[in-house]
Structures are given as C-alpha cells and as structure tokens.
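W.,

You were right to be curious about this one. When I first looked at the sequence I had no strong expectations either way, so I just let the prediction run and decided to look at it fresh. Below is the sequence, 302 residues in total, followed by the output.
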Amino acid sequence: MTFEGPLAASAYEVLGVSATVDDDELRRAYRLRLRQTHPDTGGDAALFIRVQRAWEHVGTPDGRTAYDRGRDAVTWGAPSASASRAGTRPRTMSYGQAGGWRRQRYLELLAEHLGHPLAAREAYDPAVVRSAPWEVRRLLADALAEESTAAAIDGLGIGFTAWHGVECEQDAVLDHVVLAPSGLYGLVSEDFGDPVRFRQGEVIAGPEREVTPVADLLSRMRWIARTARVRFGGAVLILPDEDLEHPITTLGSVRGVPVAVVRRSALRPLLRTGVPGGRPLGMTEAFDVRARLRRAVRVRTP
C-alpha cells in the first residue's frame, strides 16, 4: 500500500492508532491487529496483508520518521501542463482535460461542506482532504486516477488517439476513449482506496460502498457507440497497482463486451496488444472510426 491517495487509510489508521502514539504502543497495536486479521483465526487475508505493509512503513524509528515526512509532503494539486507534455517524443493525439471537471466539482462540494470556499493550495492540503466526506474525497481520487491514466496514454505515441472526459447522456461522463491500432476501447480510471474483489462481472470495493464501475462504463460506451455509430473492441477498468492482485484480470464478456481490469502500470502494454477477446480494427476502419468520433464526441471542460 502507498497510503497516499485521498481515500486510502494511513498506516496508523490501518493499525488502529493515532499518529502520535509512542513506539511501544504502536508495536502493541500491530501485534493485536495481526491476531485480529490473521486468516487462520477467521480474519480477512487482504486486511492482514495491509497490516503487515503498514508495519513495514512505520515499524522502525527511521522508517516512521521517513513515512511521517512523506505524509507531510503529499500534494494533490493540479498537475503542470508543461510537465505532463515534457520531452520530444511524438505524443498521443489527445482531446479534453483528464480529471478537470472532477477537480472543479471537488472544490465546489468541499466549499459546501466547509461553508466557505478555500484557495486551491488550502483545498488540496492532506488534512483538509481527509476531513471531507467520502464522496467528496472520491471526486479528487478519481481526478488523480484519470490524470495518471492520461499521462500513461500520452506516452503511447502517434498511432493512438484519446478523448478524455467524454460527455454522455443524462450528464454522465466516460473517463477515456482510446483508439489504438489494436482496437477501440472505453476506459474508466478508479481509486477506491482499498484492494478490490470481483463478483459476477462487477467490482466489490469494500463494505457500504455501492459502486458499479463496470456497469457504468459499459452503459456509457453503448451510448457513445450509438451516437458515433462505432463498435468498441473492449472495456478497461484501471486501478492503482497496489489495489489489484494481478497485472491484468479479465472478467470475460460482459453484455457482449470483453472487460479487463488492469493495474495502471500494465495499461500501455494492454492497449498495444489489445484486450483479450477484443475486436481488432483494420487500417481503413480505424480511419473511419476516428473521423466518426471526431464528429460526434464532446469532451467536458472544467
């Protein structure tokens, strides 16, 4: 676990203590949490692993000092446009601003929660972010996830075209549409702050969190397919590396569309080779699909 996302519990929260406890109390809490979560005594295996990883961060004086300094240095401010486009290698042709409208909505809802607006620097302070309700923090977490995905897509090269923040019906938005030599894909970037499980072609993201990212992704893809008169070759859900057991998890065909769930670090290879079971495009069809999408797609701006 990185313990760095807006939704992720800190190492101290996983161990069930405050960040100010002394080393002896921290060690006692760790041993207690190991007993409580050990699979041999009926505990949750995923949580047991998280407890161990938390201890790896704060279990020694040097490690704890480095972790605390790292937490103070966390920043979730908007990325620099010049930094995201640095380098001379030809980039993916991209339209829209990944995460932009979600950042704007985060600032609006945060102001409603606090009763007054904050300057951007204050609004992204980790202490302020973690004090906000889960749904508000999730907007920022999703914005960060979209920005990270867009950065990965940006490095694929000139053979790829991407649209970020694609508007759909009923005020819905599809995070990314990518036209690749291997096919046409709809993508959604998520960060639930915890490792995920799967059941019947959908994601289980923790207790009391009713989320349906796969169903939402497929619904938005269908709308775009009808509007632009194109066919998607697959659907891709992107998660932080630490929240997925394997680099790529295939969910098979869901509502007639092959679905893959991938770690962000595995996204580029997947888009280059194609979603397993996906529908490839010939060169002539790819040109036609690009032209149709350019005419039909509208991207949301902040």
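Here's what jumped out at me. The chain has two domains: 11-73, 81-296. And, maybe more interesting for your project: The mean pLDDT is 89.

Coffee later to discuss?

I.
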